[in-house]
Write a structure and sequence with these properties.
66% of the residues lie in helices and 0% in strands. The protein is an all-alpha fold.
């Protein structure tokens, strides 16, 4: 039972880290902008960028080789 609890806690920590990492990036960008006396992006901008990236469609030519198809995953 303790092993299952440990796995659950580790899973929650990993999920929390993945969800909060873009927020930290947004905070760093905001601080950099303030130091340069600019307004800077929203704290949630990295989340918007990620959602836009995940919604993109794969563009691939019909004549593309197998190496071209596999290269992004390497």
């Amino acid at each position: 039972m303790a092993l299952m609890t440990d796995y659950l806690v580790q899973g929650c920590q990993m999920l929390l880290t993945l969800l909060l990492a873009p927020l930290l990036t947004g905070f760093v960008r905001r601080v950099k902008a303030r130091l340069l006396r600019r307004r800077g992006p929203s704290l949630l901008q990295p989340y918007r960028d990620l959602s836009k990236l995940l919604r993109k469609e794969v563009v691939l030519a019909d004549s593309a080789s197998w190496l071209f198809r596999v290269a992004p995953y390497l």
